[in-house]
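Researcher: Let's try something more involved. This one mixes different molecule types, so please make sure each is placed in the same coordinate frame as the others.
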Amino acid sequence: GQQLNQSPQSMFIQEGEDVSMNCTSSSIFNTWLWYKQDPGEGPVLLIALYKAGELTSNGRLTAQFGITRKDSFLNISASIPSDVGIYFCAGQLRGQGAQKLVFGQGTRLTINP
Amino acid sequence: SQTIHQWPATLVQPVGSPLSLECTVEGTSNPNLYWYRQAAGRGLQLLFYSVGIGQISSEVPQNLSASRPQDRQFILSSKKLLLSDSGFYLCAWREQGAVEEQYFGPGTRLTVT
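Model: All components are placed in one shared frame. Result:
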């Protein structure tokens, strides 16, 4: 099936540092979504992007829909302990039925206080 | 507002036993419903999705089946569990229409022994 390449797979940072992660694909996407999953819980939607070039913020989080429609990035500024978790990108492929999303493999974020 | 429930939260079952996991959504009508499996905190594998009562699409041939007996109820079943069925099962819903955002339930942790 279609793959989203999400990187890095894991990050170990100090509290207060900024974080950057991204997803890339060889295919074109109509939609990019970013989720965060806490241990033992379901993913929670953070940001949704619907237009190429779109830059959207949600508090300390900023995400962008790449101009080529094949990538997206998520930045977290001034990280805090509650940012720990797994971050997933997801996208809806152009030309595919609107019902399904393709998910990246996740970026595991660990923060040292 | 919409809420999604899953039960049970955790389940330990012997190999060869049957399985029934339930998902219900409140506060919306005619949603798209999804079952995902997540192994070891990694990516999400789409198992089944449904666009309406009695309509089930299977993504991966396997030991599981899904049913949608009511508009906001989605059930994941197996007649005989395998060890490889262990994992974290997530139900998600999406509003019918143009937006692609999926919202996840709290998940069920299944351990097959």
